[in-house]
Design a protein that fits this description.
The protein is mostly helical and 305 residues long.
Length: 305
């Protein structure tokens, strides 16, 4: 809720934000995004069992990342392809934003920056002296997120007609989170069949929707450490993978499908990537999707056990 309020403040400022400083605002967003990804990798690298768990459970975790994500993208695409609404029917590389708004570019290196940031964070976290020296970055991650959300709000507020457009399509706003939830559960169930895993365990892993911390803890307490580790790693891969997949999905599918890739993280950490490759209207829809999905994750996990 705090991040949404901070973003709302940014939207209000964005209505009056000078256009000549929009580029600087984009650079701040980029720096904050990479710092947050680095901080994520730093925290993971400090966990003593992370690398061993990744090696032992990597294949199952990868499958539980790929199929629920693919299911979400397919479900959202089916629900939005024939309906009017936010970012309907056009690739995210096609919108014509206002002057100064972020635009996707062929060969944009952002996905490589993201991958490099998380890799560097993992390495630094595994080296104790470096991890200790970089502790302020990890401890200050929440403040970095606040700054990021404020700057994203400025970008959204600077684009005219976004909120009015969403009001026109208010009945369809629930289609994206519906597709994310149904597609993730369907993908999780399919993983369970392929891996001969009990259905409720498979559904609980897919029902994490990218919220790896909650999924890992909740599933571990209900189904054991092994299943909980798969839940943690697969949903972590979904958040990290979103930074790499959003540009591809934006160009090949549509803007709403970008939100499906991110799942519950579409309201905060992956939001700048969605804004970068789509538009302000889709960014607002992304926040709403993240709020709804995050609210449903505890419900889904509790229904499985």
């Amino acid at each position: 809720m705090d991040t949404i309020l901070v973003m709302a403040a940014g939207v209000a400022v964005g209505r009056f934000f000078p256009a000549k400083y929009r580029k600087q605002n984009e650079w701040v967003q980029l720096a904050c995004t990479l710092l947050l990804i680095f901080s994520m990798g730093l925290g993971l690298g400090q966990q003593p069992d992370f690398f061993s768990d990744l090696a032992a459970l990597g294949l199952s975790s990868l499958l539980f990342f790929l199929l629920p994500t693919a299911g979400s993208v397919a479900a959202v695409w089916l629900l939005t392809r024939r309906r009017g609404g936010p970012a309907h029917g056009r690739p995210a590389s096609a919108p014509q934003p206002e002057s100064g708004a972020p635009r996707p570019r062929v060969g944009d290196p952002m996905m490589f920056f993201a991958l490099g940031a998380v890799g560097l964070g993992l390495v630094c976290g595994a080296v104790s002296p470096l991890a200790a020296a970089l502790a302020p970055v990890r401890d200050g991650a929440q403040w970095i997120l606040y700054l990021l959300m404020f700057c994203v709000g400025i970008s959204v507020g600077g684009q005219r007609g976004v909120l009015a457009s969403l009001r026109r399509h208010s009945a369809q706003i629930l289609l994206v989170p519906l597709g994310v939830i149904v597609g993730s559960l369907a993908g999780g169930g399919l993983c369970g069949l392929l891996l001969r895993m009990p259905l409720r365990e498979a559904l609980s892993i897919g029902g994490g929707l990218g919220w790896y911390s909650l999924a890992g803890v909740s599933v571990s307490s209900a189904a054991g450490v092994t299943v909980g580790s798969i839940a943690f790693l697969s949903n972590l891969l979904r958040e990290i993978g979103a930074f790499l997949l959003i540009p591809l999905v934006a160009r090949r599918v549509n803007a709403c499908a970008c939100i499906a890739v991110a799942g519950a993280t579409s309201e905060d950490t992956t939001l700048p990537m969605i804004l970068r490759y789509t538009d302000g209207e889709t960014a607002v829809l992304s926040v709403l999707n993240g709020v709804i999905c995050s609210a449903f994750v505890p419900v889904l996990l509790s229904l499985c056990y």
